[in-house]
Amino acid sequence: MFEQEAQAAREYHEATKHRPGESTERRLIDVELIPKQYKRYIDLPRLRLPEPAAATPESLTLPSLAALLHYSAGIVQRRSVNGRSLEFRAASCTGALYHVELYLVCGAIDDLRAGVYHYDAPAETLHSLRDGDYRAVVGNAAGIDGSDAEAFVVMTSTFWRNAWRYEERAYRHAFWDSGTIAANLIGLADERGLQPRLHAGFIDDVVNHLIGVDNQREAATCILTLGVGATPAPAPDVETIVEETEPLSKAEIEYPKIWQTHAASSLGHVPALRRWLEATAATPAPDAPQPPNESLESIIQRRGSTRHFSDAPITRPELATLLEAALQPIAADFPALAQVFVIVNNVEGLPAGLYRFDTQANRLPRLKRGDFRGQAAHLALDQAAAAEAAINIYFVASLQDVLGTLGERGYRAAQLEGGIRGGRVYLKATELGLRATGLTFYDDEVAQLLEEPEDPAVLFLIAAGH
Predict the structure, then answer these.
(1) pTM assigned to the model
(2) Is the pLDDT reported for residue 304 higher than 70?
(3) Hey, which CATH number is domain 34-279, 3.30.1130.10, 3.40.109.10, 3.30.1330.10, 3.30.300.20?
């Protein structure tokens, strides 16, 4: 459908691959350019959120909304390390740089007026950007005219807040890190019966204009619907937002591949949106998964990333549970794109080796037998954690299939899916009393080991163990 059109995403993917001898070189960074961790509006009213409420099946309430925001993108732990106060957010983020922002577009929720809001994570407040019911603007932009959603959550990435460390590769991280947040948010919304659905396809300029971002420095990555049964209101006119924000840093370095790729993968008008919807039309909403044995909030509160694993093995049922959680269908406007490969280092009763999960037969056949610990560490940018971990799970897609079926926009969806599935492994590992960490990788060397799929694009790597 899109075979001859999707070149920008392929060129970006090739240009941002990690390669031995290049990707681990130390870079000198001007400390005055390191951006602030949070977006701050100047002289914009704040509305304090109530204490987060436990999950109960109900329509969207303000305490429930507070829980959704806090346990997806809020600060859940604060620690003092070597005299420094460190803040840990609810979802994993590359380099702990937390460049993803959340915006709420809602009707009236309890005492909260209908409007457009920005979530201020450290203050647990909402910045009011617009008064009025703008849900129809988002619904129309995502091709769900007449949506009865109670609210939409729009995620964005402020590219510089990740690119100062990771340069052009930060565009991949925009969707990985939106995905780990989405994994939390979808799970929390499912617990509350809010029937969440993720949208990777939407008319970018409309959504970015609504929330007041510029599409080059900060841009929307995905949209999540929350709740059903609301009465749709007509879409109002959307004036330009003129609210000022504090500068992120003294100056910013431009990485043009980021916004060029973002522009190339944008849907600029209704016909482009229709093509996306036609290409993804056969993607039904799955049933909500079974809830975990403990509250998702308590799991998120305990979740963290580790850099070291013990030599204790995990069990085969634990591995099966992790894979089952990762591969649960995603309620989204795009089909499943990722295949799953596992390097088994230390699983009771399972020979060490390389495995590929067969989704049709629900089996994990072995592709190669042997000790891959040394190779696992090398593939993960020579990080020892990959060798120490009991397993390394790779989510991989055929770039040819993704771009041929879904076009440039499919590249965003594939990276987003990788983040969601990796985020689910984080949550399930924590529930099981295991530890996990997301790692980056040498793209081509991983592909050489896997030998499939054709034209592979590695989307996400997560290691787990004790």
Answers:
(1) 0.95
(2) yes
(3) 3.40.109.10
